[in-house]
């Protein structure tokens, strides 16, 4: 073999060595990438496993039949079962505890703590029996309705936005809880016109068509929200009358003097009220 042939062979071997080194480098890079991916997958797997174990522990801690509701000593399944017995089965509140005792005998652990008939009635009221009955009524797509909305009840710096749905047909009496349906409840801070408008838009979208009219107090953000949506707006007459009295009497000297005197001598005001009633 000549020197030229040896040089060509060495050059070819060096070329093959470089190619092998590049392949090794690529394989090492792929290996590191796979290690990273596997590490992420193991972390996610551990997290999911912990969540599943936590859910299983919660289920086992309540007899496997539901979770415990905060601030309630009874299980969720017990509350739901009692309300359904009263509402759907038509059992009286006094008979519900007996029915739950029977269920506890047939299905061990489903209702370990039997409530009293008074507690059953409280649960039914909190769950909204009128709303339950209202849901059973068949509603047509074009049924005319009205919306009553307001912001109230400030808790921890947040206001509750409430929307009630009512029929436009007069029930021949003042509206009661049974005549309205809660359609939206939302908490938030610093409510403005756009926030109110957004909530009303969502409700109208869910209902499928605009209400015949909306009712609220004279709050500026309430009025502006209804105006921006182009909804016919009725202002609460009791609030309007209260504002009228405030505008008339808040700066009236005689009335202001009366308020000042009544605050200084509240007993005199009480005596005056009793004498008028007698």
- Report strand %: 5-15%
Which geometry do the CA atoms define? elongated
Count of β-strands? 5
Rg over C-alpha atoms, rounded to the nearest angstrom:
35 Å
CATH topology of the domain at 145-235, by name, is Nucleotidyltransferase, domain 5
Order of helices and strands: HHHHHEEEHEHEHHH
CATH fourth-tier homologous superfamily of the domain at 145-235:
Ribonuclease H-like superfamily/Ribonuclease H
Can you give the mean pLDDT? 79
Class from helix and strand fractions: alpha/beta
Report on the biggest sheet: 5 strands, mixed
Strand order of the largest sheet: 3-2-1-4-5
CATH class (first level) name of the domain at 145-235: Alpha Beta
Q: Which architecture of the domain at 145-235 would the CATH scheme give at its second level?
A: 2-Layer Sandwich
Quaternary organisation = single chain
Point out poorly predicted stretches.
Answer: 60-65, 130-136
Distance between the termini: 137 Å
Helicity, as a percent range: 55-70%
Query: What is the number of helical segments per DSSP (H or I, 4+ residues)?
Result: 10
Keywords:
278 residues, alpha/beta, Nucleotidyltransferase, domain 5, five-stranded mixed β-sheet, 10 helices
Protein model, in words:
Residues 60-65 and 130-136 have low confidence and may be disordered. α6 packs across α7 and α9 crosses α10. With 278 residues, the protein is of the alpha/beta class. Strands 3-2-1-4-5 form a five-stranded mixed beta sheet. The longest helix is centred in the N-terminal third of the chain and has 59 residues, at 3-61. Helices cover 58% and strands 13% of the residues. Among the domains are: 76-134; 145-235, Ribonuclease H-like superfamily/Ribonuclease H (Nucleotidyltransferase, domain 5, 2-Layer Sandwich); 249-277, no CATH class. It is elongated.
